[in-house]
Design goal:
By secondary structure, the chain is an alpha+beta fold. The protein contains four helices and ten strands. It has one domain. Helix content is about 25%, strand content about 35%. The strands form three sheets. Strands 4, 5, 6 and 7 form a four-stranded antiparallel beta sheet that branches. Strands 2-1-3 form a three-stranded antiparallel beta sheet. The longest helix has 18 residues, at about 1-20.
Length: about 170
């Protein structure tokens, strides 16, 4: 009986350990907004967020989620012609957009900008009128923006919510 109880305790502790996210190894994702262009940028580099704020007038909107360590790659593309960033976990989308003369370039030398994983859905929307994409972990924002012309594209990736960090 004692051996069964010890085995159950070990299994329970493993379950808690596996389901918890260590705050020291999960990276905050900062959401930064350019009021002049309407673009949002997502970065793990707080220095980049500060530079955009201090030198270019962007607004730091906070940290809506955390990136887990080395799970599903999230790539950041940039199109200087339209001044737009796009985030995707789909390598086929990366290859398709960068193979045509559409102006899309892969940021970060082709390495992932951060990773997808966790329990928090992060949705992607598209605005046909501006050509902009938006990521949001706020389900209300995702549901309200279609009333303003945005098209819902579904769950783009998953993040780690702050409440899951230990």
């Amino acid at each position: 009986m004692k051996k069964v109880l010890m085995t159950l305790l070990v299994l329970l502790s493993l379950t808690v350990t596996v389901s918890a996210y260590d705050k020291s190894i999960n990276t905050p994702i900062y959401r930064v907004y350019n009021p002049a262009s309407g673009e949002h940028l997502y970065t793990t580099a707080f220095g980049e967020a500060l530079s955009l704020r201090d030198q270019h007038g962007w607004t730091i909107e906070g940290c809506p989620w955390y990136s887990p360590v080395h799970q599903t790659n999230v790539y950041r593309l940039y199109n200087p012609t339209i001044g737009e960033h796009l985030y995707t976990t789909d390598i086929n989308e990366v290859n398709y957009l960068t193979s045509f003369m559409s102006g899309w370039l892969v940021d970060n030398n082709g390495y992932p900008s951060f990773w997808s994983g966790g329990s928090l859905p992060v949705y992607r929307l598209y605005s046909p009128s501006s050509g902009r994409h938006l990521l949001t972990s706020d389900e209300n924002e995702y549901n309200v923006l279609p009333q303003h012309g945005w098209v819902q594209e579904g769950v783009a990736l998953y993040g780690v919510p702050e409440k899951d960090l230990v």
